[in-house]
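Handout, section B. The chain below has 136 residues.
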Amino acid sequence: MKALGRHIVCELSGCQRAALSDINGIAAMMIAAAKAARATIMESAFHRFEPQGVSGTVILAESHLSIHTWPEKGYAAMDFYTCGDHTDPWLAFQHAVHSLRATSVLATELKRGIEKSDGEFTHVLSRNHDTRVLTA
């Protein structure tokens, strides 16, 4: 089954709270995550909310990475979506988990853009990664 892309949707809990409000740190981490995935960065945009929280995206030639943070809860919601055989969204995921020092992670991978026989496209759940307690 050939998919056009892989999309990891993840919940990072127990993250370093100060890091989740640092727009420059989040932007640098996301750019580094894209590079770790061997993706081609086209542009990025980040916004810091008052009193706290950051949302942002890194647009890739191969799709995108996105983040939304809740520092008061130590939580980040992230998407890692890449297309092409040369990229690996799990490498971006690993970089983010390590950088934000998440203590609990739930990640689900979807294979997207699977062409059906009638010319329509679908997606399938391909992997769940559930780590309740991470160690350094």
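Note. Residues 10 and 75 are 11 Å apart (CA to CA). Compare this with the example in section A.
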